[in-house]
Amino acid sequence: MIVVTGATGNVGRPLTQALAEASEPVTAVSRHAAAMPDGVRHVVADLAAPVGLRGALDGAKALFLLLSGDLHAPEARPTDIIDLAVASGVSRVVLLSSQGVATRPLGPSRVAMRAVEEALRGSGLDWAVLRPGGFASNALAWAESVRTQGTVAAPFGDVGVPILDPADIAEVAAACLLDDRHSGGVFELTGPEVITPRQQAAAIAAALGSPVRFHELTRAKAKAAMTRFVPTELADDTLDILAAPNPAELRISPDVERVTGRPPRPFDSWVARNIAAFR
Q1: Contact 232, 226 (CB under 8 A)
Q2: pTM of the model
Q3: Which residue from 72, 71, 66, 80 is spatially nearest to 108, judged by alpha carbons?
Q4: 74 pLDDT exceeds 60?
Q5: Rounded to an integer, what distance in angstroms lies between the CA atom of residue 166 and that of residue 178?
Q6: Using CA atoms, how far apart are residues 73 and 46, in angstroms rounded to an integer?
Q7: Residue 48: exposed, middle, or buried by beta-carbon count in 10 A (0-12, 13-18, 19+)?
Q8: What is the torsional sign of CA 123, 124, 126, 130?
Q9: Helix pair 232-243, 108-121: axis angle to 10 deg
Q10: Where are the alpha helices (DSSP H) in the chain?
Q11: What pLDDT, in 10s, does the model give residues 79-134?
């Protein structure tokens, strides 16, 4: 059995579906009840209280570990989940980490995530670490304003990074969970091209067939919006990258294709699959 945390999210949902389609027994874990693919067991648990995972991990051979925003905070204890996986007899963990662990190692949220990576390496388990850059699905934060005002509001409108389709993360995660050839791998995951927020807005407009205006936010306003959902440290670390990506953060990684056998999907492909959210 494979346990997928964050199973209702942009990565966890397609990962759960892919594993179910591969005829793998799956336990999907999320904070709230949700519909799941046929045959998938669902457990409601909060990773901030790892004891709630005990029942989900019974009999599990592998765990996909996705840490929610609050578990990136310096005071959180996500390494307790790895300890619980060891105690439960799990043999493999695939961790969704962050590109910033390597590119911005001194950022407070990156320090916390690096500690989780190090705990996993020292756990005695088989492991793989996925380090994605920015997610294409972050554009869903613009869905309401596009629907109601025809507007996208974001900071640093002409600064781009190679954002990544979460479906590509899910496919890489599935491969790492199912194939021991990927054990011990650290995979940097990016999209196929650098794209700016202004260009993302244009891609949404093209898919809609109607204009979408771009409004540039100040960093302060962007941070205020982000900290409604994630810790201040994570918001600051993310905005530092979006404001001035360094050469490592602009590099197009070959790792999606190396694992899946195909290039990463471009942003307009993600928009086409999700355009209903913007109508």
Answers
A1: no
A2: 0.93
A3: 72
A4: no
A5: 18
A6: 15
A7: middle
A8: positive
A9: 100
A10: 12-21, 54-57, 79-87, 100-103, 108-121, 143-149, 166-178, 197-208, 219-226, 232-243, 247-250, 255-260, 267-274
A11: 889 999 999 999 999 999 999 999 998 887 788 889 899 999 999 999 999 999 99
Encoding tokens for residue 245? 């990506």
Task: Give the sheet arrangement for strand 62-66, strand by strand.
Answer: 41-44, 26-30, 2-5, 62-66, 92-96, 126-132, 186-189
Backbone torsion region of residue 156, taken as left when φ is above 0, otherwise alpha when ψ lies between -120 and 50, otherwise beta: left
Length of the chain measured in residues = 279
With 0-12 CB in 10 A as exposed, 13-18 as middle and 19+ as buried, what is 71? buried
Question: Measured between alpha carbons, how far is residue 254 from residues 43, 126, 205, 259, 261 in Å?
Answer: 35, 23, 29, 9, 10
